[in-house]
User: Fold this.
Amino acid sequence: MNQADTLAYTEDDIQVLEGLIAVRKRPGMYIGSTGSRGLHHLLWEIVDNAKDEALAGVNDKIVVTLYKDGSVSVEDFGRGIPTGMHKSGRPVPEVIFTTLHAGGKFGGGGYKKSGGLHGVGSSVVVALSKWLEVEIHREGKIHKQRFEYVVDEAGNEYVGKPVTDLEVIGTTKRTGTKVTFLPDETVFTQTRFDYEQIRDRFRETAFLLRKLRMILIDKRGPEEKREEFYFEDGLQSYVSYLNEGKQTLHPIVYFEGEKDNVYVELAFQYNDGYAETLVSYVNSIPTTDGGTHVTGFRNGTTRIFNDFARKKGLIKEKDANLSGNDLREGFLGVLSLQMADVQFESQTKDKLGNEEARTIVEQIISEKLGFFLEENPEIGKLLIEKAVRSAEIREELRKQREALRGDKKGKGAKKRKSISEKFAPPQYKDPKRNELFLVEGDSAGGSAKQARNSEFQAIFGLRGKPLNTEKSKLSDVLANEEFRTVLEVLETDIGPDFAIENCAFDKIIIMSDADVDGSHIQTLLLTFFFRYMQPLIAAGKLYLAMPPLYQVKKEGKKAESIYCWSDFELEQAVKKLGRGAEVQRYKGLGEMNADQLWETTMNPETRTLIQVSLQDLAQSERLVTTLMGDKVPPRREWIESHVTFEVGEDE
Assistant:
């Protein structure tokens, strides 16, 4: 097949599988949620289409613009959507934007490698927007069409109704597609796009597609903001970015390979930390839940490192192989695949399912890594020695934990008075219902114990600020009384030995004061869970409590009380209660009595919780290192960029 055939993209490549209707009724099936994540998923769907043009080798720039009215546009400089008539009798753009499972990625010649393989992206964006406009530059003409969500006088809904025909509005010398849409505020809980989240995604894309320039423009503020990302070294620059602030052990390693039309890239660099961080992608789509390619990577690296260690006599013949967990301690890498016929396990594309990817990645990684270790034996020796030390320490810690727990029959355990005097367990053991509150301070811990429903809520009161686990060895973490208590009550173990199925609680809730110290404690605890219990976060079991900042009350015949979680809510509450309203500012959890704490923060029927999630592993990794690592300048720069300091009155 010649290049002209490969790059052909015509009306015949668009295939219709079924119609569009129920997206607005159950949007979560298509975009995951109707919160911030779902909102941004709309944008990623359109951006992914533009990225697919780059994967096809016909687009070198993507421009996203945020507008004051809440709309957003995505412009690429690829081939432009075909504008002719589809075999169904409608213009191709109308088919793409109004028909579920319609697109050029089901086996036609339009795309060989792409991220948008389900054909639902563009139509879902239309279905969940108030309006969408597409502008196409192709064959010397500019075409435009508009779609809207319409409800007529009889109450009939028209999802993605074409309110204009596909019309020519001018001439052009370039090619490409521009899509502009306004998310529907009746669908989403919030419709403001997050500049930093988009900026981070753009930086990530520029790392992965090194020939692609990503431009972000924000016109919502008083002054226009613009950032541009372009990286010549691709994944190597990405690893350097993620490892910034860490003590690295060797230069960045990079290799690539291709087999059966699957292109594999890997860049990695070990640091002196204790966690493994692998960020994986398929066709530039982040696979946050991993998949077969990650399995292939782990199988290949474990086997080749052990082969090298035995060949060089770094582990004794009678000793068992080093485990993958020991071999990847301190590993930070980026794995990227480009392939056709991708099988993601959901529309949100979090996990790769192609079985052939496992075999191909394992073969390529094994071959390239084996060659690298032979050419760089000093680096190989350094990493094997690190893994051997890790295995020795892990075995010592395992014996210590077993000594505390005893054997399976309960024999041999060291006697302990109790898990902790500051731990108040629930009355019943129900891991599907029970909740563990990690509470700041003795005063708050005492109030929480009085406020809780003791049937299913457990309280553990923290003493001061927890250990910074970003700067600590695993042995230090396990020697820390408070973290050891957390581990014992959760019953999950830690790090590579973590077992989510053993978790004794459905929710682990961090409850701290709404001040600087409370935020610091939250960050320290989040760092611990991120480093050593990441599956707990992935399973959606970690939460932050939201105690109120204020109580506004008014005495009298019509006594009324309103709790407020923001200054805006405070302003509204004062207006509502009018003259005579009294405002109480809660400086700490201990200032609330048990009834108030239960009503506002602990009662499942009335409280508000923030669920902690890992939407972007790479950015989470970098942020934890920045805030909790040894390097001061990056932390100072982040604080100066994200924290507003105001002069207030002393009270």
